[in-house]
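Worked example (supplementary).
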Amino acid sequence: DIVMTQSPDSLSVSLGATATIKCKSSRSVLYSYNYLAWYQQKPGQPPRLLIYWASTRGSGVPGRFSGSGSGTDFTLTISSLQAEDVAVYYCQQYYNTPGTFGQGTKVEIK
Amino acid sequence: EVQLVQSGPEVKKPGESLRISCKTSGYSFTTNWIAWVRQMPGKGLEWMAIMYPGDSDTRYGPSFKGRVAISVDQSIRTAFLQWNSLEASDTAIFYCAKAPTGTSVPYHFDSWGQGTLVTVSS
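After joint prediction of all chains, the assembly is encoded as:
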């Protein structure tokens, strides 16, 4: 299985500041495209797709969410953090099955 | 509108069997992979199993193969996850999720069910 490792496990960011979450895969997930997605999970809710193909925003996702990276190293950036962005964020590779998830990064307001 | 509506919470005893469901609407059921994802209390997401209803191609995560079974009923556009003998460690929230349409391999999950809480306790 491909192992996905996120950093940090948690971070505290001021309103309006930028949050940066890293995700590293144990092997490359690049094959024409990067088979990498990001999800947001708010307390008591199911996950929501934020980013797929490493940098394509999902339907209705605000422009302050952006994804970057290639191969084994990826980043989710939340610009101008809003109170409603408090959540746990997960990366997932779908290069092969099982489509493993990172352990999650909890984002809080400082 | 795409909808995945899961069955309600369950409380079971160890050794009992269980089948939970995920009823779908708003998209082509047979051409979208559908999966189950586990979330144990206070923990992260774990990819369990996935099926392509169009040809019944099925994949399991190694931790779940032999422990659960994924199935679908195309006539009612519903996916199922079944256990033959539950253990206390099966206590978790289980989500169904669908992948985008028409892909030969499972991609990311673009829609999710609301989750089903399964509690296994003696």
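Two points are worth noting when inspecting this output. The mean pLDDT of chain B is 96. Chain B is about 0% helix and 50% strand.
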